[in-house]
Sequence to fold (447 residues):
Amino acid sequence: MRVDKQRDFVLRTIEERGVKFVRLWFTDVIGTLKSVAIAPAEVEGAFAEGIGFDGSAIEGLTRTYESDLLAQPDPTTFQILPWRGEIDPTARMFCDLTTPDGRPAVSDPRNVLRRALAKAADAGFTFYTHPEIEFYLLKSSQLGPEGPIPADNAGYFDNVPGGTAHDFRRSAVRMLEDLGISVEYSHHEGGPGQNEIDLRYADALTTADNIMTFRTVVKEVAIEQGVYATFMPKPLNDHPGSGMHTHMSLFEGDMNAFFEAGAEYQLSLTGRRFIAGLLRHANEIAAVTNQFVNSYKRLWGGDEAPSFVTWGHANRSALIRVPMYKPNKGQSTRIEYRALDSAANPYLAYALMLAAGLKGIEEEYELPPEAEDNVWSLSDSERRALGYAPLPASLDHALEYMRDSELVAETLGEQVFNYVLLNKQKEWEAYRGQVTPFELKNNLGLL
Fold:
């Protein structure tokens, strides 16, 4: 009944607002947003029967001999797109992908996350997430003599009245709020042209949809402001990369399962085992949480990106941080996973992070001692003595872990698992075959 009411609301709003086009959105396996626009008259039919398309033409969705898929719009995600203005108003809805006989498409990233959330629900949990999304504003997508040219030279928390970043963030936050996406903070980050906007916590599926919308909003506002926005993990050699630190918690009904009054850091046994699961499986999920060759330039480039599998209380050098507990706010107890970058497919990444944490709970993993020191300042021998294992140093290294992971294969499903491996192996091979400017500069005149 609730779905029927939501569909009626969508149809009524389309008529009342004079919507001329409705964009149906979904993502491919890599996390690229796909869109097909339909006329308002077709929306009711799309609710009833879906919109057919050739899935084999989309990265990783189907094999050629089983190519027919249907995009089924989710009416709860209906929003008017504010950047389209009042001329030819345009709306959007996210879609779930199904086969012609109505079964969920195994390769649909949104369905992969739905399956993981259903497993959590069977254990009595709801999974909430809150992402801190970093990105760079550049003067254009064209490269200067030294590479990308940042839109400004400001730094962390700098206030630049009237500057590009200041105007940009104001416009972007207003547009996100117009789309029903609540923003908690926005500020200039540490790199020139680098910004961060934090979304308020929500259930993981809503968050993943919001991240995909967020990327589109940021790109659209950047065009409007005459600059270029990039979510590339590390576009500048000597400046910080762009992460997507994600705060996570599990709830049992209305109660935060990570909270235990009187426990160390007010963190429950469930929360400790969830962290232990993330730590144990961090390297296995890295090829999804950090899916590009460039992702590992961020992880191993310093500037507060985590490089070792550790956890700590308020320790920003650790992979997992337990933020400061707020007195009388047990519902806010959470953990922060710091490896994830802004270019990840949020549906697949959140599915794997949840699966790893649930595995720790199910198998009663023991949480290792916390890292109290600055992990980056330790020597290699000191880190080895303390048992701080490194994260993968390259995409190739991450794929080695993923290939042997039962957890990743089970969570993603055979088709998505195999596609990610194949796609990322091709990316690594193409990268490995490049002769880079670094090699030419350092070797050509010497050898």
